[in-house]
Amino acid sequence: MTTTTARLAFATCAELPELDPDDQILRDALLERGIATDAVVWDDPTIDWGTYDHVVIRSTWDYTDRPAQFADWTRRVERTSTLLNPASVVGWNIDKTYLRDLEKAGLPIVPTIWLDPERNHDSRAIHTRFPAFGDFVIKPTVSAGARDTGRYDAGVTQQRSLAITHAKNLLSVGRRVMIQRYLRKIDTVGETALVFIDGQFSHSVRKGALLDGPYREQQADELYRQEIMTAREASDAERELGERVVAALPTIAPGADGPLLYARVDLIPDDEGNPVVLEVELTEPSLFLAHAEGSAARVADAIAARL
Ligand SMILES: Nc1ncnc2c1ncn2[C@@H]1O[C@H](COP(=O)(O)OP(=O)(O)O)[C@@H](O)[C@H]1O
Ligand SMILES: [Mg+2]
Fold first, then answer.
1. Cβ-count burial of 32 within 10 angstroms (0-12 exposed, 13-18 middle, 19+ buried)?
2. How confident is the model at residue 223 (pLDDT cuts 50, 70, 90)?
3. At a CB cut-off of 8 Å and minimum separation 6, what does 152 contact?
4. Which InterPro entries match (predicted)?
5. What residues form DSSP beta bridges with 195?
6. How are strands ordered across the β-sheet holding 37-41?
7. Which of 17, 45, 91, 219 has the most other CB atoms within 10 Å of its CB?
8. Which numbered atom of ligand 1 lies nearest the CA of 184?
9. pLDDT value of residue 155
């Protein structure tokens, strides 16, 4: 049992008990403001969350194969403490089917075919949903750090069968599956992450392409795929789409009526070069504070203002 005087907790996972380096920067920025933070493992059964007035979800990246347990935990914490972001927002955001809500709201997303585990898709039914040519991606709707994600070449028979196996394995354990065309411009342009603090644009970074081929069993134990980040100013079109997404949240994400402590909008270019939404991270986004001067101070101020 941690003995503490801190009233603020950063929730992390057992693999990162001392937090991710980026959150250490944030912890230091809070300390400069006289605010102590405990790093607490979200699924540690000995923790009395009621001792914390505020719990900020940070590096809890190991929940992706047990989202129901994680969602329960968020609701339990919220009974005694203020959870950031709120449990209702997290409940909406941990499963990428929320992308359908964005699409309905008129926002461009990466075109996606969805496979539901309840539908008992056989190999043929999965196969017919793959694109006829080009590369495509298979991933579960609940994921972080590109876990359980693979890239396949539709023109190679053996890769199509690997993709079927990958999809079937996910479906067989009750996970919903997404099929997307691999948007090639990511290889040259990369992915752009736009970070919003309290609803205000803070900074953006570039993330290099991550997927190099079919899903491999050895990847199952990786907490996240190694990412290559660099500072990058978002284009006007990216910035505008990011702002539209954040502006739409109050009407589509339950409980997002006030400004959220953090929101990250990840965009990639479609084949015409127009940005489309890959994901919106309201649960446990890396905020890439090391890449943007002043950003740690902005997040620390936003947290401090809520205490
Ligand atoms: N349709 C796609 N086209 C190109 N790259 C993709 C596509 N989908 C996923 N990726 C790559 O896989 C990574 C992880 O996918 P993402 O949808 O962001 O899930 P998460 O980060 O939640 O695991 C992305 O950062 C990107 O590099
Ligand atoms: Mg991502």
1. exposed
2. confident
3. 130, 135, 136, 137, 138, 159, 160, 162, 163, 166, 213, 214
4. DcsG_Biosynth_Enzyme
5. 203, 264
6. 37-41, 8-12, 54-57, 82-84
7. 91
8. 4
9. 96
Beta bridge partners of 279: 266
Number of H helices, E strands in the chain: 9, 13
Distance of CA 102 to the CA centre of its chain: 15
Question: What residue type is assigned to position 88 of the chain?
Answer: S
Cβ of 135 closer than 6 Å to ligand 1, yes or no, is no
Residue type, 210: L
* 69 burial type by CB count under 10 A (0-12 exposed, 13-18 middle, 19+ buried): exposed
Tokens 């919003």 correspond to what residue?
Answer: 196
User: DSSP letter string over 251-282?
Assistant: HHSTT--SPPSEEEEEEEE-TTS-EEEEEEE-
CA distance 91 to 67: 9
Q: Which residue has the tokens 């970074």?
A: 205
pLDDT digits (tens, 9 = 90+) for 2-20: 556 789 999 999 999 999 9
Q: Summarize pLDDT for 70-83 with one digit per residue, the tens.
A: 999 999 999 999 99
Tokens of 185: 């411009």
Is 264 a catalytic site residue? yes
**Ligand with minimal distance to 61 CA:** 1
Segment 179-189, tens digit of pLDDT: 999 999 999 99
Give me the catalytic one of 160, 175, 264, 298.
264
Domains of the chain: 8-92 (3.40.50.20), 98-107+184-290 (3.30.470.20), 112-181 (3.30.1490)
Question: Phi-psi bin for 36: left (phi > 0), alpha (psi -120 to 50), beta?
Answer: beta
For residue 146 and ligand 1, the question of a CB distance below 6 A is answered with: yes
